[in-house]
Write a structure and sequence with these properties.
- The protein folds into two domains: 136 residues, Aminopeptidase; 236 residues, Aldolase class I (TIM Barrel).
- It is built from 15 helices and 19 strands.
- It has an eight-stranded parallel barrel, surrounded by seven helices. The chain has a seven-stranded mixed β-sheet with strand order 1-2-3-4-5-7-6, with helices on both faces.
- The longest helix has 15 residues.
- The protein is elongated and about 70 Å long.
């Protein structure tokens, strides 16, 4: 299952076939379609579910939720509603609602929606307003533990300061590592294709596909995403978010087009930093671009999921770059900011939470036994 941002026109065929099979495609358009946000669930390459979202201040309405009959009962409707609920929260929406067909009210009841007002009839179909208070039902955790799995030759490794000559293999089977994290309650995973970062094209997508298919972890995947095809492979292989850094620095227009195509909720912007300058290409090249200018440019284009790694700290187990992170958090206050690099013990994790980070990516400290699974549990 892959949820993507789509165009209004992309929704029409499914809307018509499922909801109004005797109508024309033109007849199933709604007022304001061009101003809405439209999303689809893909099963492989087939579009199986669509929905359209219209945000108006503290309220949002979704319309024309439709799933192919042959694909109903597989959780696609529930998944896409959870997806748009997250988007609404990012926009400050407090209430999400729809005009539901009478025959579908039990579906919304199970998801926590409540009926508001009386039933009414339109074009011979009975509807009722169903709504849910997002701030209560769908509030996301304020701080996330995100273990990192770095991949070379299909194996779980760690580098020191991004140096490929300083690598250590921790497990030849990344799925085993991912399942250990899932078993203690971890929800997020940061998967890095180091071969891809070095090559400039996605390499280890099979590892992603295996982990996405055999765990319920929300996985972001990065390393080597340089083209439309790379990004398509990443999402088709099961990534919830695509981690992108080099393209955002060197081809900002292409990166912005991806944000518009897939939606900012599907993009995890990576700011890899050396002396407050952006590094790219698997940290093999340092640019003259300031991290602050880099972030400001992309935040202005709706990017809000961001992580920052100080290369000077990564893999050394000497503590994170607190001063750098504080500067970023003070300057950019409405982002989901995740710290990465240098975490050496559980006290570092607590400190990052205290300064206002949304989460922390942890790698070597876990693999070297500096942070135990038991110590992580209170944060999960």
């Amino acid at each position: 299952m892959n949820i993507q941002r789509i165009s209004a026109d992309d929704t029409l065929q499914l809307r018509r076939d499922v909801l109004y099979p005797n109508e024309s495609l033109t007849a199933v358009k709604v007022d304001g379609d061009d101003d809405g946000l439209h999303f689809g669930v893909y099963e492989g390459t087939q579009l199986v579910t669509v929905v359209s979202l219209f945000i108006k201040g503290p309220e949002a309405q979704f319309r024309k939720l439709a799933t192919l009959p042959a694909c109903q009962g597989r959780g696609y409707g529930k998944a896409i509603l959870a997806h748009i609920s997250g988007i609404c929260l990012q926009h400050g929406v407090k209430t999400l609602w729809c005009h539901a067909r009478e025959s579908a009210t039990s579906f919304y009841d199970r998801l926590g929606y409540t009926q508001v007002g009386d039933y009414f009839t339109k074009n011979g179909i009975v509807f009722v307003k169903m709504q849910i208070p997002l701030a209560v039902k769908n509030m996301q955790p304020s701080f996330e533990i995100i273990p990192a799995i770095d991949i070379i030759d299909g194996k779980c490794v760690r580098l020191t300061q991004g140096d490929y000559s300083q690598q250590k293999v921790y497990n030849e089977h990344p799925l085993e590592v991912a399942m250990e994290f899932e078993a203690i309650g971890v929800k997020r995973l940061h998967l890095v294709d180091l071969d891809g970062a070095k090559k400039g094209a996605v390499v280890n997508w099979k590892v992603l596909e295996t982990i996405a298919g055999k765990t319920s972890l929300i996985t972001d995947f990065g390393g080597g995403i340089k083209t439309d095809k790379d990004l398509q492979i990443v999402f088709e292989s099961g990534a919830a978010l695509a981690t992108i850094g080099s393209v955002a620095a060197k081809q900002p227009d292409l990166f912005t087009s991806w944000v518009k195509q897939y939606g900012p909720e599907k993009i995890f912007l990576g700011a890899d930093v050396k002396d407050e300058k952006i590094a790219v290409g698997g940290w093999l090249e340092t640019t003259e671009l300031s991290v602050y200018d880099f972030l400001e440019q992309h935040i202005a284009n709706s990017v809000h999921n961001i992580f920052c790694t100080d290369i000077a700290k990564d893999g050394l187990l000497q503590g994170p770059s607190l001063d750098l992170y504080k500067k970023i958090l003070e300057r950019f206050q409405n982002i989901n900011f995740v710290a990465s690099g240098g975490v050496s013990n559980i006290a570092d994790v607590a400190t990052l939470q205290e300064i206002g980070c949304s989460g922390v990516i942890i790698g070597k400290a876990i693999y070297e036994g500096r942070i135990s699974m038991a110590e992580l549990k209170p944060f999960l």
